[in-house]
Design a protein that fits this description.
The complex is a heterodimer. Chain A is of the alpha+beta class. The N and C termini of chain A lie far apart (about 75 Å). The N terminus of chain A is likely disordered. Helices cover about 65% and strands about 0% of the residues of chain B. The chains are: A alpha+beta, B mainly alpha. Chain B: GO terms for molecular function: cargo adaptor activity.
């Protein structure tokens, strides 16, 4: 209808934008969600339900893209985990497929052979890394090295804090003996 | 003391445990992981919410604990539950001085809140403070939050600082500042309109990452205002050239491709800048040509760039050589086994077909394969292509296919789209009236609730007006065929409301017109409709009005009217209807039945839906009556205005009121011709019944003849002019003759290949013949389809085209190529950083912001006019760029190969994969988390 058309036009001006990132396991469990366009909690649940229903049931040899509600969702399966990104109709799907792969490679480098379990327990780290890669739905950095550098700078702070914490814990352990 | 112990344990675990979370949290994650249903998961999360609500209320929660609670909040919100009860704690955490906590706070608020949330106001202050921090990591965290949380109102609060940060020492900060400004521009262009020159300047940032990020806002700015950025064409071309020549640091390589994401962005920008601009396009010819030669089509990223080149070429004014390159890339895509590439190939065809319409023919069989592919994505893309290449000779095949597909799917969004495309194509290219009506029937039957109401009105108008020619006979035939088809369909169950409205209206107007069907037969059918869809008042209204017309035509022709008993009971039912509209219709019908033939004829004349109704607004025909009444002592009428004269306010009020009333009441002035931009008048009125007054200027539009091929307008409207030209022309016949001549040719498969003629291969060219040789056995069915989709309307015209395209091709390929391309080449392709040479636009150079960089450049670049060395600028130590790159290179190759292991030395020590997985497993068990054996894939390497 006309409403759809106008909403499509609305997004037309926001070309090249990733509307959301979604990580779902083969079993349909959500591993990470990041929303760059406004969606209510209800809409988010609906989107996840709808998309995982479609994507998890697609055969292996098919396109890595689906057309969905006037947008396109690019997805790729890594082991048992599906990485999905929703983009505009007019975007370059192959490029987005590589942005996904780029992210996975950075995760792989960070965790050292990343597996799903890493992301389950360290989902906040996956978020930090994603935030260095994409900002407001745009690719902000395409050099793995640069992303790795800033993440490790942040982690060094964490390490310093941990050492501090463990020394305190030792003191407490001593004190409570 | 007990509390201290727990803290100690907690802290110890935090420092030892690989995952850095408490047992509680790991248990939560584990139990969620093991839950077998969504309901169970929800139960677990709800109890976790209870726990968190309690814990957050405890006094003096240690900060470390709080940090974990917030991560847990993020987790439950990620699972789709509401964590808003804890948002305020995340907000508080952003205030913390400890960067670790601050960062967690920022992460949580950017995930929890959107820019219109009430809590934002509590963060703005912190953001302001953090943007001024000495620690660039704090600044980065704050800028991340800025990009997510700052809205139009709060932009001024942070804008000056963000602008300052454009010149920050750390490139990570500059980059995020650019992205933040970009976002401000999207939110509120006016707030940063005075700052856009910063984007131009940052294009020359010494860090390639910042330059790459700057392309995002520039893309937006250029798409809004191409003209102001024309001067940058040469700069972008120069940057792209240098990127492809590997002048950027190796760390920007991705799968051996130099900075591909930057290349793609540049190609998008250049497509915008050079769209329809010959001289700008010419500047790009060389670099585009290089890309086609250099891109590695064996990698996905190489193909992504190739695809972007195709898109770029479809936007600019390309050289014949580039068109050839693009066509070749497309044909590679289509011949690939990868569905992704086929999809891109189909998409590329759809883009290039606008420039050279014969390109699709070479790939007809590949296109048909995609059309019949079980993958819906590919199928839909192919339908889009077919939609773009529809013409009168293939419209029937294409629309039939579309309708079959439309019937087969459940996805309403796409169903609507494909239905409206069917309507559009049918309206533009219909070969015959019968076909048109048949197609419309199918669309209404299967997607009637999804199509625009205007489509229904257009159809009724078409049936009423005929085709603009004074050929009553043809018009009557059309109407009869419509009536016949509706009488067949009408008894099908569950027809869409809109379709029933059309059916009722047409049956009312023309059901008995031909004399083939009796009034009682038609009225019986109409009663059935009203009965079967008794909850649909609009349909009932249409049905009653249709009944009224049927009876009126009977009365007017002096026939005796027998109101069927079911009609009688329908009328009685409606006389007491809750709907005043239905009531009125019923009363009108009842009144009409009691009138004599003459009166009825003037109320509802036969076949007069297109006639103008002249309305006597002054009611002058009552003058005599009034005169008589006044003479016998009645008070003369005092108009409303006169009655309330003097009191200004009320007059205003009244006249306004009056206005309001008329706009809602029956409208007597003539309707405008339906225009797509105007909301359908019929639907705006209370009852969308096409009263005879509906079409007031029936035959006006035909005088303007617009070309049939003009298909850009996607709006749904009936192009009667095009239809009129189309219909009755021999094109329909010739296409049938083509399809009838197809089977014998397709049947003797050998001759097809030997003579290179035949239907499918009539316009043979190299790429396609190789496709054929790869697939020697071609289903004759497919060939027939190919012929009907791609072939011309008749065999003679096809051979004409063949010879013309044959004559065209060599000219394109060999004769023109050396002649034209070199001529265009000598235009110097300026370097990004080569600012000394004003390229054509010398006046711009004076104000060119790049000039400012000249001083910066002196050391590393020579203004010799050739290629400037950007490397010196970008690499951190210019003296040994090669050494620094080798390590990066090996990393890259390891990632793409499966031979990892070596580079892990540089990472935190990790063993080979299997050992690693075991270690992780052991660790998890230690933590009390037993991964379920049913799901060993959790340990599988994602990239393995």
């Amino acid at each position: 209808g006309t409403d759809d058309h106008s909403s499509d036009l609305f997004w037309e001006s926001r070309i090249n934008m990733i509307h959301f990132v979604l990580l779902v396991s083969r079993q349909g469990k959500v591993r990470l969600t990041k929303w760059y366009s406004p969606y209510t909690q209800k809409e988010r649940s609906k989107v996840i339900r709808e998309l995982s229903g479609v994507i998890l049931n697609r055969g292996p040899k098919l396109c890595n893209f689906i057309e969905w509600r006037g947008y396109k969702v690019v997805y790729k399966r890594y082991a048992s985990l599906y990485f999905c990104m929703c983009i505009d109709e007019a975007d370059n799907e192959l490029e987005v497929l590589e942005i996904i792969h780029h992210y996975v490679e950075i995760l792989d480098r960070y965790f050292g052979s990343v597996c799903e379990l890493d992301l389950i327990f360290n989902f906040h780290k996956a978020y930090y890394i994603l935030d260095e890669l994409l900002i407001a739905g745009e690719l902000q950095e395409s050099s793995k090295k640069t992303v790795a550098r800033i993440i490790s700078a942040q982690d060094q702070l964490v390490e310093a804090a941990k050492e501090e914490a463990s020394s305190i814990s030792n003191i407490i352990a001593q004190a409570t003996k | 003391m007990e509390q201290l112990k727990t803290i100690g344990r907690e802290l110890a675990m935090g420092s030892q445990g690989g995952f850095g979370q408490s047992k509680e949290f790991l248990d939560l994650v584990k139990s969620i992981g093991e839950s077998r249903s969504k309901a169970e998961e929800d139960r677990i999360v709800l109890s976790e919410i209870d726990i968190l609500k309690r814990k957050l209320l405890e006094p003096d929660v240690p900060k470390r604990k709080m940090k974990e609670y917030i991560i847990r909040l993020v987790y439950i919100e990620m699972l789709g539950h509401d964590a808003s009860f804890g948002y305020i704690h995340a907000v508080k955490m952003t205030h913390d001085d400890n960067l670790l906590l601050k960062r967690t706070g920022y992460l949580a608020v950017t995930l929890f809140l959107d820019e219109d949330h009430d809590l934002i106001i509590l963060i703005v202050n912190t953001i302001q403070k953090d943007l001024r921090s000495d620690n660039y990591l704090v600044v980065c965290a704050a800028l991340n939050a800025v990009c997510r949380l700052i809205n139009e109102e709060t932009i001024p609060a942070v804008l000056p600082q963000v602008v300052d940060l454009l010149n920050h020492g750390k490139e990570a900060v500059r980059k995020k500042a650019i992205m933040a400004l970009h976002r401000f521009h999207r939110k509120s262009p006016s707030s940063v309109s005075h700052l856009v020159s910063n984007f131009r300047r940052k294009l020359c940032d010494s860090d390639p990452g910042v330059m790459g990020a700057t392309l995002c806002p520039l893309f937006d700015l250029i798409s809004e205002d191409v003209a102001s950025y024309k001067d940058l064409v040469s700069s972008f071309v120069g940057i792209l050239k240098q990127v492809t020549e590997r002048k950027l640091p190796k760390s920007y390589d991705y799968h051996q491709m130099p900075a591909p994401f930057i290349q793609i962005k540049l190609l998008k920008i250049m497509a915008l800048l050079s769209s329809g601009d010959k001289s700008a396009s010419e500047m790009m010819y060389m670099v585009l040509g290089d890309l086609f030669r250099k891109c590695d089509s064996s990698t996905n990223i190489g193909n992504a760039i190739l695809y972007e080149c195709i898109r770029c070429i479809s936007c600019i004014i390309p050289s014949p050589k580039l068109l050839e390159d693009a066509a070749e890339a497309i044909s590679k895509f289509l011949k690939s086994d990868s569905h992704n590439l086929k999809y891109m190939g189909i998409d590329g065809l759809g883009r290039l077909i606008k420039i050279s319409s014969d390109i699709a023919e070479q790939h007809q069989l590949a296109v048909i394969d995609c059309l019949e592919d079980p993958d819906d994505t590919l199928k839909r893309k192919t339908f889009e292509l077919l939609y773009k290449m529809t013409k009168s000779s293939n419209v029937e095949v294409i629309v039939d296919r579309m309708i079959d597909y439309m019937i087969s799917i459940n996805d309403n969004h796409y169903k609507t789209e494909i239905a409206s495309r069917c309507v559009e194509l049918a309206e533009q290219f219909a070969p015959s009236n019968q076909w048109f009506i048949q197609i419309m029937n199918k669309v209404f039957e299967h997607a009637g609730d999804l199509v625009n109401i205007k489509v229904a009105h257009n159809l009724m108008r078409l049936i009423a007006e005929g085709f603009g020619e004074d050929d009553d006979d043809a018009d009557n035939k059309l109407r009869l065929s419509a009536v016949e088809s509706y009488l067949q369909i009408i008894s099908e169950p569950k027809l869409p409301s809109l379709f029933l409205q059309v059916i009722s209206w047409v049956l009312g107007e023309y059901g008995t017109a031909d004399g083939k069907y009796s009034a009682s037969y038609i009225s019986g059918k109409l009663c059935d409709v009203a009965d079967a869809y008794s909850s649909d008042e609009t349909v009932k209204g249409y049905a009653v009005t249709a009944l009224m017309k049927i009876y009126a035509f009977e009365i007017a022709s002096w026939r005796k009217v027998d109101v069927l008993p079911e009609c009688q009971s329908l009328i009685e039912e409606l006389l007491a209807s809750h709907s005043t509209d239905l009531q009125q219709r019923a009363y009108e019908l009842q009144a009409l039945l009691a009138l004599d033939a003459r009166a009825v004829e003037s109320i509802l004349p036969l076949d007069a839906s297109c006639e103008d109704i002249e309305v006597d607004k002054d009611l002058s025909f009552l003058n005599g009556y009034i005169q008589q009444a006044i003479e016998s002592g009645a008070q003369p009428y005092v108009s409303e205005r006169e009655r309330s004269g003097g009191m200004f306010e009320t007059t205003d009020y009244h006249s306004q009121d009056h206005h309001e009333v008329t706009s809602h009441a029956l409208r007597f002035e003539a309707y405008e011709l339906p225009k797509p931009s105007v909301p359908s008048q019929a639907s705006a009125a209370l009852v969308p019944v096409p009263e005879p007054s509906y079409y007031s200027e029936p035959h006006q539009p035909i005088s303007t003849s617009s070309s049939v091929s003009e298909r850009e307008s996607s709006e749904i409207k009936l192009r009667l002019d095009g239809v009129k030209q189309k219909w009755g022309r021999p094109s329909y016949q010739s296409s049938t003759s083509a399809s009838s001549s197809t089977p014998p040719q397709a049947a003797n498969g050998t001759s097809i290949r030997s003579d290179g003629g035949g239907v499918a291969s009539s316009s043979s060219s190299k790429p396609r013949s190789s496709y054929e040789s790869k697939k020697p056995e071609i289903d004759p069915e497919k060939q027939r389809l190919a012929a009907s989709l791609f072939g011309g309307s008749s065999s003679s015209s096809r051979s004409d085209r063949k010879s013309s395209s044959g004559g065209h091709k060599p000219a394109k390929g060999t004769a023109n190529k050396p002649a034209t391309v070199p001529k265009e080449n000598p235009i110097p392709v300026p370097d990004l950083l080569d600012f000394d040479e004003p390229t054509g636009t010398s006046d711009v150079a004076a104000t060119d912001p790049f000039k400012e960089l000249e001083g910066l450049m002196e050391s590393s670049s020579q203004d010799g006019g050739g290629s400037t060395d950007v490397m010196g600028l970008y690499s951190t130590d210019a003296s040994a760029p090669v050494k620094t790159t080798t390590s990066v290179d090996s990393l890259l190759s390891e990632l793409s190969d499966s031979s990892r292991g070596t580079y892990h030395q540089s990472q935190t020590t990790k063993g080979p994969n299997s050992k690693e997985a075991l270690e992780k497993d052991a660790l998890v068990r230690q933590m009390g988390v037993n991964p379920t054996s049913q799901n060993p894939t959790l340990f599988k390497d994602l990239l393995g």
